[in-house]
Design goal:
The chain is about 20% helix and about 30% strand. It starts with a strand and ends with a strand. A seven-stranded mixed beta sheet has the order 5-4-1-6-11-8-12. It has a seven-stranded parallel beta sheet with strand order 15-18-21-24-27-30-32, with helices on one face. It has a six-stranded parallel beta sheet with strand order 14-17-20-23-26-29, with no helix packed on it. It has two domains: about 220 residues, Spore Coat Polysaccharide Biosynthesis Protein SpsA, Chain A, CATH 3.90.550.10; about 120 residues, 3 Solenoid (UDP N-Acetylglucosamine Acyltransferase, domain 1), CATH 2.160.10.
Length: about 350
């Protein structure tokens, strides 16, 4: 089985962190999302993954240390300054995918434990053109919503309906199996939307089916969702290394510390803290419900709660960073600064004073 991973999105809702990395390389419990995806594909006997990317994303992925796990990786690049939407990249990759078998398509910002092999089996058994994996959501208005009839046939597909107009709570989970006939539904050489153009037409023709999935699933497109998937995995203790401290620092589990982490005297890390490679934490500092990316240095007497801190950030002494703050890569925060809730700092900025009202420092 071949898989096409739609990895060309710009991650606008994850700025300023996505200013310096594509969504698909965001670390989840210290492992890039793309690595989790490749491992999941390998477990489901996928032999080739084609990454639909823009130029910047392709370069970033090639410079990363993604393990291929026996899966052959190929690239299909969008034309410069001409994004192809969610369906256009599928058409563009037609020759690489081939026309001899059903194939898998994944949104690159999805984390799930869907059994792809099982979805493929169901798809092929019933000779379908398109099968969408569906997941139940509390707020379906953020997603595409499907209404199913007998035999799991989707009779209506509505993209981001208002809450009162959503026919069900079954949302598009961003995982699809398509037969080669799908290529005839996608015009060539222009931006095409699966959700607004292709799926409604397939539903009208009776060629769109749903597969309801009730396992682990999240879209990391928003900062709160990104924090939440890390929390869920920490709570489930998936592949967590043992955290050992030689001094009297305290690690409150569940937490995950990558290689080279150093924590000072009397500091408390966790619960629900993720620290990337070579993060250093000073004395008498508290970090909880937060993600600290690689190479960041946090000085003495700091407090970080519910925040996301980028790579190679320097945080001075006695700094407090509150919930829903996002600090971009290479930021410097001076001593005694306070960042109130919902403050975001763009990459490479220098903060010398407290920011006590929610805003983005660009």
């Amino acid at each position: 089985m071949k898989a096409l991973v739609l990895a060309g999105g710009f991650g606008t809702r994850l700025r300023p962190l996505s200013c310096t990395r594509p969504k698909t390389l965001f670390p989840i419990v210290n492992k890039p999302l793309l690595q989790w995806t490749i491992e999941r594909l390998a477990e489901n006997n996928v032999t080739e993954a084609i990454l639909a990317v823009n130029y910047q994303t392709e370069i970033a992925i090639k410079q990363s240390t993604i393990q291929k796990c026996g899966v052959h990786i190929a690239y299909s690049r969008d034309p410069p300054k001409k994004p192809l939407g969610t369906a256009g990249p599928i058409k563009k990759a037609e020759k690489q995918i081939g026309n001899d078998a059903a194939f898998l398509v994944l949104n690159g910002d999805i984390f799930s434990n869907v059994d792809y092999s099982e979805v493929l089996k169901k798809h092929e058994k019933e000779h379908r053109v398109a099968t969408i994996v569906l997941h139940k959501a509390e707020d379906p208005s953020r997603y595409g919503v499907a209404e199913m009839a007998a035999g799991n046939r989707i009779v209506r597909f509505i993209e981001k309906p208002s809450p009162e107009k959503a026919p069900t709570n079954l949302i598009n989970a961003g995982v699809y199996v398509f037969s080669p006939e799908i290529f005839t539904y996608i015009p060539k050489g222009r931006k095409v939307s699966l959700e607004n153009e292709v799926f409604p037409k397939l539903a009208e023709e009776g060629e769109l089916y749903g597969y309801v999935f009730e396992g682990l699933w999240t879209d990391i497109g928003k900062p709160e969702d990104y924090l939440e998937i890390n929390r869920l995995l920490l709570k489930s203790h998936i592949s967590l290394p043992k955290n050992k401290m030689k001094n009297n620092a305290k690690i409150r589990n569940p937490s995950a510390l990558d290689k080279g982490v150093s924590i000072g005297e009397r500091s408390v890390v966790g619960p629900y803290a993720v620290l990337g490679q070579n993060v250093t934490v000073g004395n008498d500092t508290k970090i909880r419900n937060s993600i600290i990316l690689s190479g960041t240095a946090i000085s003495d007497f700091c407090s970080i709660n519910g925040a996301i801190i980028g790579e190679n950030v320097h945080i001075g002494k006695n700094v407090r960073i509150d919930e829903k703050c996002i600090v971009g890569d290479h930021v410097k925060i001076g001593d005694n600064a306070k960042l109130t809730k919902n403050v975001s700092i763009c990459p490479a900025k220098e903060i010398r004073e407290s920011i006590l009202t929610p805003k983005c420092v660009s």
